[in-house]
Specification:
This protein is of the alpha/beta class and about 350 residues long. It has 2 domains: about 1-80 and about 315-340, no CATH class; about 85-305, von Willebrand factor, type A domain (Rossmann fold). Helix content is about 40%, strand content about 20%. The chain contains 10 helices and 11 strands. The protein has helices spanning about 15-35, 40-45, 50-70, 110-120, 150-155, 165-175, 235-245, 275-285, 295-305, 320-340, and strands at about 1-5, 75-85, 90-95, 130-135, 140-145, 215-225, 245-250, 260-265, 265-270, 290, 310-315. It has a 6-stranded mixed beta sheet with strand order 5-4-3-6-7-10, sandwiched between helices. Strands 1-2-11 form a 3-stranded antiparallel beta sheet, with no helix packed on it. The protein is rod-shaped, with a radius of gyration of 34 Å.
Length: about 350
């Protein structure tokens, strides 16, 4: 146990003073009462005395309560096991050049950002959320964290880039989830100093011995579909995710006819291909959403479930000391009333 204000513990030295003052007061009261009677033996016969233990037990409880209050003033801190939600969700957002298409207003990437914000707004505090972006390679922008505001801030910085590497994005997301493993070698630093993690297509790593004991996790993939870059096969990564008890929910962003927009001075037609996204969701027992509503996004968390684990944290326990002191004082008062016949 630690104390934030240990100097307050000196107040405990007052307890022996109070106990001594009490004992002296009891003896003086007895002598004073006896002196009122001319006949000492007569006083011994008519005085009502409680048993020796009962006479002092209530005051002992009060002194213990006082000690707890003095200790509470020092603000004690203890390492206490606390329940925590062990669930993890990784948002994987496609930032390829085709995500700049305006067929989904105002653009596919902006729609992905808005859907991710809606998901975070409906996601309760406690579970961890991370952010992965994918283009020519995949980057872990925000490791899993209970600070959902940090993920929202990172979403605001996303910009369209180049190609689409969905398999790499899934691999990097799996590696970021606690308890899951996948071989993802380090890649060269990105243009803003971040270190992307590109995933090759080696044989998937074997799942843990007891995957059912792993905390729940899910990946939410927002993309316009298709893959034209990267080295990891999306469906093989989906199989690995299923083996490691990670569902992948895919959100398709685009219109069936595709979108046309100016790219590097030329009119470009970018198709929308949800087939791969539907296959990934099906392989992992997840779900595919097209233009999801807030209700659909909230369902992802309901499907994810809730697993409570325990984590030791240093916590101030002054309130426990005060509560214990209150209970002792209340108990002492009730015992005093019962023994003196003032309660039925």
């Amino acid at each position: 146990m630690e104390f934030t204000w240990p100097v307050m513990l000196w107040g405990l030295l007052l307890l022996p003073v109070f106990v001594g003052w009490y004992m002296v007061g009891v003896r003086r009261a007895q002598r004073s009462a006896a002196q009122r009677f001319a006949e000492g033996p007569l006083f011994a016969q008519i005085a009502v005395r409680l048993p020796r233990i009962r006479r002092h037990v209530t005051m002992a409880l009060y002194f213990l309560a006082l000690g707890l209050l003095l200790a509470a003033a020092s603000r004690p801190v203890m390492a206490i096991p606390m329940p925590v939600n062990k669930a993890t969700v990784i948002l994987v957002i496609d930032t390829s050049g085709s995500m700049a298409a305006p067929d989904v207003s105002p653009s596919r990437l902006d729609a992905a950002r808005m859907a991710a914000r809606v998901f975070l707004d409906n996601f309760p505090q406690g579970p961890k959320v991370g952010l992965v972006t994918l283009s020519t390679y995949a980057t872990l922008n925000v490791p899993p964290t209970p600070d959902h505001d940090a993920v929202k801030q990172a979403l605001a910085t996303l910009k369209p880039q180049e190609a689409t590497a969905i398999g790499d994005g899934i691999a990097v997301a799996l590696k970021a989830i606690p308890g899951r493993t996948v071989d993802v070698p380090e890649a060269r630093p990105g243009p803003f100093g971040q270190v992307p993690q590109a995933a090759p297509s080696p044989s998937p790593s074997p799942p843990p011995a007891k995957p059912e004991d792993l905390p729940p996790a899910a990946i939410v993939l927002l993309s316009d579909g298709g893959q034209n870059a990267g080295t990891a096969d999306p469906l093989r990564m989906a199989i690995l995710a299923r083996q490691q008890k990670v569902k992948i929910y895919t959100i398709g962003l685009g219109t069936p006819g595709g979108g046309v927009f100016m790219y590097q001075g030329q009119m470009v037609l970018v198709p929308f291909d949800p087939t791969l996204l539907q296959q990934i969701a099906s392989v992992t027992d997840g779900k595919f959403f097209f233009s999801p509503s807030a209700k659909d996004l909230a369902q992802i968390y309901r499907d994810l479930g809730r697993t409570i684990g325990w984590e030791t944290r240093k916590t101030e326990v002054s309130a426990l000391f005060v509560g214990g002191a209150g209970a002792l004082m209340l108990g002492g008062g009730l015992l005093s009333l019962v023994w003196r016949g003032r309660l039925p």
